[in-house]
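Anyone else keep sequences and structure tokens together like this?

Example one:
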Amino acid sequence: MPHYASDRVYPIDLHATAQGIITCVAFKDHDSNALSMARTLADWAIENMWDEAKGYFYFQKTKWYTNKIPYLRWPNAWMYYALVLLAQR
């Protein structure tokens, strides 16, 4: 699971997840594990943050609730961008 901040678990933020995928793809030529990590992040996001019935990713999860507002710009557009970058590799 990706972390928004290094010193705590919550909030779990999809934008941070997308950025992790984008960063891993960017470093694929410098780290042999980068694409594997990007795939792990993508799989985690799809398993934990994707709403299959509604067709979008959740914004954030906190310890007490999940913010299910479908923000297109933050974070869905970044997540779709990250998944496209990963799919091209």
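And example two:
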Amino acid sequence: MSSDSVGVPDVSARLERVTNELREIQDLLISGNGVDPRILTDFRDAMNRIRNTAWAIQQYAESKTTEKDPQAVLSVLAGERVRLAYQLAKLVQADLANTEIQFQKGQLLRLHGAAEELARRLGEVVGD
């Protein structure tokens, strides 16, 4: 084992294990045994994020070996984060409207602070 990899999880082995588990989950989904639609939506969203991130990381790694500009890939990743932030904001809005969901005040205060700072920075960037 090289000194660069000491203490670093074996990403390839972990990806292989997760891939096998996802295949098992696929079989369960195909069987159609009572999946909560909200959980399935969350799962699909997570899978899309992982797929997009994996694609971008692959493109970034390839850009290093082919001497292509990696900035384009970094911009794609940043754009993906913006898209995800929008989706998450909409989901949080729906959760806040749902009286069955109980939030911890501390979580909401941290989110509120982060959202205010984000709004301030967005205003600077878009010219508000």
